[in-house]
Structures
1.
Amino acid sequence: MTASALPVLPQLDVAETLLTLLRDSTTEPRADIQLEALTLAVAADLPVLLWGEPGIGKTAALTQLAAALDLPLTTVIASVHEPSDFSGLPVVGDDPAVQGVPMAPPDWAVRLVRAGRGLLFLDELSTAPPAVQAALLRLVLERRIGALRLPAGVRIVAAANPRSSAADGWELSPPLANRFVHLQWVHDHDVVVRGLGGTWPRAALPRLDAERLPEAVDFARRAVCAFLQARPGLVHRLPSGESRRGGAWPSPRSWEATLRLIAFATAAGSSRDVLSLLVRGTVGDGPGLELLASLDRMDLPDPESLLADPAGAVLPERGDLRQAALDGVVAAVRGRPERARWDAAWALLVRAMETGAPDVVVVPATTLASLRREDWEVPAAVERLAGVVSLSRRADEAARRSVRTAGARR
Amino acid sequence: MTARAPGALDLGKLFAARLHAARARPYLATALFALRPVESRQVPTMAVDRYWRCYVFPAFVDRTALEELAAVWVHEVAHLLRDHHGRGDRVARERGLTGPAERLRMNIAADCEINDDVYGDGLVCPEDAVTPQKLGVPAGWLMEDYLRHVRLGPPLDRLGWLDCGSGADGLERAWELGPDGAHGLSEQERDAVRFRVAQGIRGAPGSAPQSWRRWAEEVFHPPQPWRQLLGSTLRSAVCAPGAGEDYHQGRPARRSAGVPKVVLPSLRRRPPRVCVVVDTSGSVSDAELGSALLEVAAICRALGGRRDLVSVLSCDAAARTVQPLCRAEGIELTGGGGTDLRTGFARALRTRPDVVVVLTDGQTPWPEARPACRTVVGLFSRAGGSYDENDPDHRPDEPPAWARVVTIGSGPG
């Protein structure tokens, strides 16, 4: 047989072998906080909007998510559909005046409803014409397709291109933006390079711990309520300015979503980095960061329990948090000045100086000294703070020298 | 303080210096206290990594005056607050810079950004601090700008020892503890510290110098590139339902023939009419107008495809004639006097546009009522506001709430 007479099929078989070799890749465990945040938001049954440039692995992430949640994945490319595919096609019957015009749903919706559960991924939301987007939003928010209603077991994720790269003028009006958890989807350079080399990451997805549920709800309620108590202005604030349009902003609705997400993240034992993505994607960067800062403060030890047991007190390692904890103790003493509490606070300051950097003790010590009543004797423990006093004096001298140097140079 | 072994790190002096720094710069206290000192014999002086650890060479502490140490504390924490490691990585990727020499240039450029205004007012300037003056470039730039002017060579040779760690330029050093080492701050914790500092500066703006206030304003909301913003705003105004392409059930679609009884909508395209009103009063410079007008013309052409639907109108105190954009090569802008955009609006509305785009510096009265079309205002930024010598307290009206406003010329264009 000559070469030219070879049948075509073996060539394709060879190609198939080559393709199989190319597809052959392994996975390695790697923490992926984007995917973890997405998983939690989907588990919490909140509509998620992934913002990301095309071709950076949003679909791959969704495939992994569907596998982790054990849900069948249905992908709908919004830009190739017509609005009636989502709002239902009007079908004219024999006698419309009597029977009405039913709105027929598309086949994928019927299958989804019949299955009762699934992950619906609405891709390329931003390249669809405005009327299609409007119909899709009804699907996302009211979960209705024509006459059908999606069952509770169906979770919805949408994807859109950022405004700057969107070909059309897609953007969300503030009421719509407020209903989504906005997650920025970016690719990690190292992951892509390693993946093309044959090793893709495998993220361990969060698992909700059934035993921690009541504790998680309690924590989430305390966190959000304490924060909004202190910052009433952040309960509702419409976005101002063109650059922040279409993003997350705080309102009672998005705070409720935040509460839910904190509870889910707590029950799953997720890191603060994951929670940061979720919270900032729900109420916006500014209020989200403020809430996270207030969570840091919530983690501080309670001043009263510190005062009750100065010898066994465990103070935060980080200098700024340690100073905040000590400031809290001094404020508690100022709130209810009693001799025993004042002494306990001094004992705490001594403990702080002996277990960490002494400079964070200076300001609380100065404030505490000013709280002294006339009939209170200085406790013996204060002598052990001599190091702090000399530290403060050295800093004072340096400040005077700096002023003199500056004066001499002038 | 207890007596320490010879050669050991003088923590007392280091902490006293930090206390002095925190007193001189109260708005940086949170960040200063969040830094974790780590004794290291491989750094020449003091250095930071991106996880907020501060590496300190014991002999450097011994030989340096306390007030100078305080200045170094502030310097190092400024590297971290200003995200020099992240920006260094980005610049390296964008400009294709590799190797330790490039990172040294980045470190020098970052030092210039910090050193041009961080000292004084209670903090001494270290003798060997790298400043823009020593490099012969103007002060007040950003690291990225200085980087273009930093050349390694004879005048900078003596800076070879300079090393502020990966916190200053993004390049991991062998002696650093890395992401898994003890006492590092997570990304969220770093954000939280920076956020608290920014909040402190914004809460009491009087005490911080200009560059720190600018940092606080922009750290979590960097200025938007106005070209993209203007483009997307205009696109969304032009494409919004009713103005452009959309579905209508007025006439059945062609594929209806295949599915009898089903009513399918059809796609109709009705290109929008766009009228651009250009403020040609004396206060708007030709360069500003040129750049903005080019953008608008490009966007409109791309959208409509029919240039006869785009018209341009120049307006100072009186509206001039409306010109179609067919003659795009030579749009004639006339004017030069004061501004009254109300006449421009009235004239533009007579062409029955779907979208009106106004390019102005905003020093004009605005129409009382919302016009019957979408309005995009491209506003040339005027730092410090306008000044009228007859009426120094005069402030021009803000653009009305019904218009979508994009500030032109602020931030990277």
2.
Amino acid sequence: MLLLVFLAGPILWAFHASFTNAALTGRNARSPAWVGLENYARLFADPVLPLSLGLTVLFVGGSAILGQNILGLSIAVLMRRASRSVSAVVGTAVVAAWVLPEIVAAFAAYAYFSRDGTLNQLLAGLGVGQPDWLYSFPMVAIILANVWRGTAFSMLVYRAALDDVPGEVTEAAVMDGAGGWQRLAYVTLPMIRGSIATNLMLVTLQTLAVFTLIWVMTAGGPSNASTTLPVLAYQEAFKFGDIGYGTAVASVLILIGVVFGAAYIRLLRDPKP
Amino acid sequence: MRRRALKITSLIASAAFALAACSPASPEAETKTLKVVYQKTNSFTALDDMFKAAKAEFEAAHQGVTVELEPIQADDADYGTKLALALRSPSTAPDVFYEDTFKVRSDVDAGYLLKLDSHLQEWKDWDSFDDGAKAAGLGDDGGTYAVPVGTDTRAIWYNKKVLSAAGVSVPWEPRTWQDILDTARKIKANDPSVVPFNMYAGKGTGEGTVMQSFYELLYGTGSELYDADAKKWVVGSTGFTDSLAFLKTLYDEKLAVSPAEALDANVWKKVFGEWLPQGKMGATVEGSYSPSFWQKGGSYEWPGYEQDMGVAAFPTQKGQAPGGVSMSGGWTLAIGAGTKDPDLAFDFLSTALNQKNSLAFNIASSQIAVRKDVAADSGYQAANPFVKDVSELVSVTRYRPATADYPRISAAVQEATEAVITGARSPEQAAADYDTAVKGIVGEDKTVRK
């Protein structure tokens, strides 16, 4: 009950605010008025929205669904085969990025990708071109940064799941002459399907809400080239003081989260045909 | 069923109780407290010093009153957001706070600020404030809601060594935009590794882009952003396009920093901390507070800045009257509309801004004094060799149209500059985009074509 109040309260407040012209300052701050769907009408007419939606999907798809998820699974599988010391070193390195506070990780990533940053110094050592990542390829930089930061979570989920796969099933598959790839595709993956769906859901929702990382690295720029929905909502609500419009953006974000969540829940429930 | 309802009720009750216990300032408390909110950053501690001095002075004179100083660590934009959030709720609203002049009007509209007229009448120091500066605290109803602590102007700051090396005679006094380009090209020809003439552009530097760059250009064309008499926003002006075209020339010819550097929100740190002191930049347009970074105790101490740097007024487009352009902002102290004890809050405000504290603050932060007795003080005049020059720019300075729509308009201008310097749009296209954006923000009936 309490959980519901604390969770649903702010969400309902946001939905409510998105139908008003509430503002941080000016006349509308004193007496916000009900404006109905005006904010949404304005939002759907705004050319930034399609761009921002596309970038959000790209960011979530690239960094969470593909990046963190697949890399996390690969590391988990490989670590089972690796020697104890190698797996300890890799595990520590991956988890280290994850336990850093987001703001620290964001500045580390900024330092890494900036023009005179670590990455370009490495590239200079190799004699390759050194693009200005945050300016020329902002989405690539923030996707890589988020993969770096978030992979540990998926890795831990998959390590636990793989440990739960009974040894005799794998042995039986080996007896039947299944190679490594076949074992993975026909035995292991189907058995951890539940963990895959859970993990996808969690990393998707986490990544949808990523703000600090992007704000520190690119602040949504240049020219909105990395303005995902959370960045857009923040800009509207706080930089321009337009709370009503900002919460309308946030409401769209929440709806996307709900759609993703529902899709994964279906994936969890339906047995594979 | 009934038992469950009881359980839920008791849960809610205990949660409510827990929340109530967290709320500050229980009414029984005997001692009075004043909450003071202001901005503090690593490179800006002068205000913190001023409030600490004021707190000691005030508490000694008022037994039983505690002043709670709550500095907010944030840059200007974030400070404004955090302050606005605090002001929204009576339980978090401060009694006395540091307020940007260009937010005064819209915050008065929002009902956040206390009208100070009756208090000011009884405060004899009020007569020593400059009349022009007093206007910064006016609300739309003609009442005064805030007391200025200092103001600023914008000028060209140039490195004499770099200009001399390129064969430009100093003191340098550009009369037209063409003079700037000519000089910049000379510097470039002399040493291609030097950034000849920097002007901020793009959204990375935020309000700095318009205050320290675009408006110096726009107001020098004879055009303006906002027609204050008609209360309408100007669209379709050739001055706007010309200003963008000038920025395009600077960036296209690599006379300013690279577009990628310009879009980095931290570029100003390099301007003050590296490029100017190291002789890697010819000139930049910046505020009168610039020496505060270089003087002793500043974030980028530079012992030789007094000899090496020069200051010049930003010229008008073709040298037309009044011959120079500057922009002013500045900050004020205000009192929260919901303060429990307005008299006490005003007492603290007047202590913080008395002659002694104002003098120390204006010197430490390289602000232009708004008190005539501070401006006349020999210590203030000797604080840095540029005080006189930048103070004179007050005669040609402009202020931003501080309506509630302004932050969005400013962002649209920043976007236009960004589109031009990155080559995404031509000056004409970017100006047309701006016009569309303005009409979308304020409505077509609040725009005027001229």
